[in-house]
Amino acid sequence: MPLLEVKDLHVAYGSLEAVKGVSFHVDPHEMVTILGSNGAGKTTTLRTLTGLTRPSAGEIWFDGKNLASVPPYSLPELGIVLVPEGRQLFPEHSVLENLQLGAYHRLRKGEWAAFQQDLSLIFELFPRVRERLTQAAGLLSGGEQQMVAIARALVARPRLLILDEPSLGLAPKVVEAIFHALRSFRGKGITILLVEQMALIGLEICDRAYVLEGGRVALSGRRDEIISNPAIVDAYLGKR
Each residue of 188-223: b (16+ CB within 10 Å) or e? Predict the structure, then answer.
């Protein structure tokens, strides 16, 4: 059974329909990438999955549970955590405080020792997060902020980690470090749904991919099928 299943999703902003019947699924322990140009409906789809935008039609199921009546603030307790586009940290709070906010639903249950264990694992993946722990998040570089945003999601112990454009605006070395970390997350059993405009990077690490065009799924398949598709190569990966 899929961990996440989206059925005939429609999302509209007034009279403008941004998502037009999108259906896809993500199996446990998979990494799935959603590709598409600007305006294709990628971010709207993610916002709807996480309850930030309400659908006009369609269904979203997570581990057999219909999410229609689940408020966004309850999703982390179910295991769904979003790393949003633009990081959206609390800039005046320290890095540690941002991480504590990510684990809020656990810490209020008294899971402080487990939180400290999670921090140790995060420091191995992102040493810069340890170095910046007491600094205000708003004073960090873009790459450091992205690492903190991912770390904040991880301390929530997600079953499904959703990332919206994690490479956006970052230097190549930082992007490499982040995607190296994503590969390691898969080894820890975390299921990942990734929206990524840098198609080659997203395809290199995913199991399957969906391509959105005009709010609809235009193509889908396993990584090697997508990479070998001439239309995808020409549109997203450069001419052969």
Answer: eebbbbbbbbbbebbbebbebbbbbeebebebbeeb
